[in-house]
C-alpha cells in the first residue's frame, strides 16, 4: 500500500478484511479484519510484483489486491488449523 497514508491504509485494511471475511465465510472481528486486510495487501502486492513486475495502482486496485491477499491468508490459516 505504497503512498496512500496510514489512515487510508487502516480504512482500506478494515474494508478489505471485512470483504474477505464475507467471501470466505469466517468471523474474525474488526481488529483482525484490519490486520488481515493490511497484511493481505502486503502479501498480495509482493506476489503481484514478483509475478507481473508491477502492482495495481490507485485505491481501487489496492482494494482488489488487499481483498485477494486477505482471502489467501484466511485460506492458509484454515489449512494450518486442520493440520
UniProtKB/TrEMBL annotation:
It is found in: Cell membrane. It is a multi-pass membrane protein. It comes from the Bacteria. The keyword Transmembrane applies. One of its GO terms (cellular component) is plasma membrane. InterPro entries: Transgly_assoc. Its main location: membrane. Pfam families: Transgly_assoc (PF04226). Keywords: Cell membrane, Membrane, Transmembrane, Transmembrane helix. The chain crosses the membrane at residues 6-23, 30-52, 58-77. PANTHER family: UPF0410 PROTEIN YMGE. Belongs to the UPF0410 family. This is GlsB/YeaQ/YmgE family stress response membrane protein. It comes from Pseudooceanicola antarcticus.
